[in-house]
Amino acid sequence: MLRSLLIGALLAGSITGVLFTVIQQFQVVPLILEAETYESTGEMVAPGHDHGGHSHDHEAATDNDGSQRLLFSLLANVLAGIGFSLIVAAAISFSGQTGWRKGLLWGAAGFVVFFLAPSLGLAPKLPGTSGASLLHQQLWWIATAAATAGGIAMLVFSPSLLWKGVGVLLLVIPHWVGAPMPAEAYSVAPEALAERFVIASGLANASFWLILGALSGYLLRKSGNAASE
Amino acid sequence: MNTSTNTVAKPQRISSRITAGLTALTLGLVIVFGVGFAQGQNDVIHDAAHDTRHTMIFPCH
User: Fold this and answer.
1) A121 with A177: CB under 8 angstroms?
2) Higher pLDDT, residue B40 or A8
3) How many helices and strands, by DSSP H and E, does chain A display?
4) CA-based nearest distance B9→chain A, Å
5) Which end of chain B is more exposed for a tag (fewer CB within 10 A), N or C?
6) What are the structural domain ranges in chain A?
7) Other CB atoms closer than 10 Å to residue A153's CB: what's the count?
8) Does the CB of A131 have a partner CB in chain B at under 8 Å?
């Protein structure tokens, strides 16, 4: 059981990570690179701004043709694919709902939990955009994803109206509390670039989750059948 | 809903499903935490996963 789950998730996550890297390189990375050019000039204009205590210089300095950066992104994307696929595999295992159609629904849920809900408070951010303390942002992100996952699960799977109500509350509370905001909001990149980044990252993540969900559902059905034979 | 009928019919299969699910969930959460949140010594994990974090909107800075 566990073996087939792990193998299915490993395969689905790796394939999704590779495909996501292609989408990311064409759709998203050019915008990040453009923002970083503003970031390096912007820092000279406004040296007082704190960029989280690190710079991006090392990336440019050690990696002239960008191949190292691409390789690290591929690695991170494949790992993210495997990690998220394992979480989807757990959900599939608990619910017993496999197949690519159900998988698409799991993928849609993953998109809402791990992208849409956090992005309502912490919008997709280009390098050089101010934010509250990193730890506070991370805690809000994790709490929001957890509450949204719980909320959706209660809404979909609980037969009781009371629990469905609790589910709605869980969906709403993180946004009622609100994401941590910086004392002074600024962005060195122009607003048009930031807007393009929101759309590009949204589309990239939607693709990621639909591919991941469908593949996980399909492969786990296949491996589940093989294991029971 | 299916679960309750299965529990009666195949209790062992259900418990192995739950165990497998919990193992996958734990492993998945650890990996996602590494990709999305860990900084590493001298920010090494942050730098490697930088573009992935921005794209997947993990808080990065």
Assistant:
1) no
2) A8
3) 9, 0
4) 15
5) N
6) 2-46+57-128+189-228, 130-185
7) 18
8) yes
Residues of chain B neighbouring A31 (CB-CB closer than 8 A): none
Contact B25 A77 (CB under 8 A): no
* pLDDT, mean over chain A: 88
Give the relative orientation of helices A2-27 and A191-228 as an angle to the nearest 10 degrees: 160
User: Is the pLDDT reported for residue B27 higher than 90?
Assistant: yes
A134 with B28: Cβ contact below 8 A: no
* Domain assignment of residue B47, yes or no: yes
Closest CA to A215 of A3, A1, A10: A10
B41 CA: distance to closest CA in chain A (Å): 13
Structural domain of residue B43, as residue ranges? 24-61
Q: Is the pLDDT of residue A11 over 50?
A: yes
ipTM above threshold 0.95:
no
**In-domain check, residue B35:** yes
pLDDT of residue A229: 37
